Amino acid sequence: MSRKLLDLWVGIFVALGLAGVLFLALKVGNLSAGNFADTYQVTAKFANIGGLKVRAPVKSAGVVVGRVVDIHFDAKDYEAVVTFSINERYHFPKDTFALILTAGLLGEQYVGLDPGGDEKMLQGGDVIAQTQSAVVLESLISQFMFNKASEGPSE
Amino acid sequence: MSNPRQNSGGALLSGITKLGHRVNDALQRLGFAARFFVMLLLHSGQSFRRLHLTIRELYFSGFQSLLIIMVSGLFIGMVLGMQGYETLQRYGSAEALGVLVALSLVRELGPVVAALLFASRAGSSITAEIGLMKATEQLTAMDMMAINPIARVVAPRFWGGVISMPLLAALFSAAGVFGGYLIGVVFIGVDEGAFWSQMQASVDFRYDVWSGIIKSFVFGVAVSLIAVFEGYDAVPTAEGVSSSIKSTVVQSALAILALDFVLTSFMFREA
């Protein structure tokens, strides 16, 4: 086979392979335009994060506005410190409320942001003061059982 | 009539001797393989300076594997689509079909199955070619003409395989996702928007796609190295070449699956 023809076929092969990678990146994966946007990082302290994981979405009004980038334990306050990056396009007031919510009854957990009414906006590196921990199903059930038991035999 | 006790002792002793021989041989071969790998890397310069040598191998091991890779990918994606739908619709989440198909292909099936197919399609033919060259003393003849057979024959085949493998694995995954789309959306009727948007929401490029590409690169190095080494180390007879081809396929499969376990445990561990 002549070298030119060989080059042509190999060129087609490499182009096809790169097209496959591109397809995986853009159509299957999330490497679309939005992912390259600049972000700023905000931290929040929670008493209990439940099953929150790194890379979990941060949503406000149901729209994904960022992702959790780091979770670690603060040994001084015995609290979980959650860092998330928020898309530069979205700005939230300083008194925004951060909650840990669950998608559906048994779904994955995510961070919800409830905007407050402050004039000042959150900057990169700020700490969200008002948080609400994850609802732990076990403690909810035990609370319910305890209440039922303390009511006593009413009949 | 010999003493049965003494006889069994002799059998035991010869068994231990054989075991020792085998361990010794295996270690020697491993040492040779390591030395061979270093020589291969040292003599790789020529396969990039004289690029047409490598391009020829890319054609034989990469381009000619395209058909089998893409058709297998398509079928695996279609089977995943059917089986996934069967289970997911019981829990009322048939829309997650795209996620299931894409994640299983991109993370695991794409790199692993493509590498297994590549080992049996291209790896075996590389071993056969080099083994036969050795059996017909072409490698020795090259050495006589002061052409280094590792630089001229072995290195281009190795790099051809290493470069082809990630491209083939990506094409395998892409064809599989298309197969899943074909079954899930076109035939069964899962909502198209939910299929793609849920897929994009849960497949992360750096975490999932990139890890898959790294995996397939590692598999490419392993399979190509095994293939060229088995050919170069073949016993130069018809029987020896055939047993080398067999051990290329067997060892590649074992290496791919073992490496996959190791890489997966490194890559996909929740913090």
Secondary structure tally: strands of chain A? 8
- By helix and strand content of chain A, what is the structural category? alpha/beta
Return the structural class of chain B: mainly alpha
In N-to-C order, the SSE pattern of chain A is: HEEEEEEEEH
Percent of sequence in beta strands of chain A: 25-35%
Beta-strand segment tally of chain B? 0
Ends distance of chain B: 69 Å
Report the major sheet of chain A.
8 strands, mixed
Could you list the spans of chain A in which at least 5 consecutive residues all have pLDDT below 50?
A: none
Low-confidence stretches of chain B: none
Number of helices of chain B: 10
Question: Which helices and strands appear, and what pairs or packs with what?
Answer:
The complex is a heterodimer of chains A (155) and B (271).
Chain A: H1 3-28, E1 39-46, E2 57-60, E3 63-74, E4 79-87, E5 97-102, E6 109-114, E7 127-128, E8 130-132, H2 137-151
Parallel strand pairs in A: 1-7, 2-6, 5-8
Antiparallel strand pairs in A: 1-4, 2-3, 3-4, 5-6
Chain B: H1 4-42, H2 45-49, H3 51-62, H4 66-88, H5 97-135, H6 138-144, H7 149-188, H8 192-202, H9 205-232, H10 238-267
What are the main properties of this structure?
heterodimer, A: 155 residues, alpha/beta, elongated, B: 271 residues, 10 helices
Notes on the protein architecture:
The complex is a heterodimer of chains A (155) and B (271). The mean pLDDT of chain A is 83. Chain A is built from two helices and eight strands. Chain A is of the alpha/beta class and 155 residues long. In chain A, a hairpin with a 2-residue loop joins strand 2 (57-60) and strand 3 (63-74). Chain B is mainly alpha-helical. Chain B has one domain (43-267). In chain B, 86% of the residues lie in helices and 0% in strands. Chain B contains ten helices and no strands. The termini of chain B are far apart. Chains A and B meet through helix 1 of A and helix 3, helix 7, helix 8 and helix 9 of B.
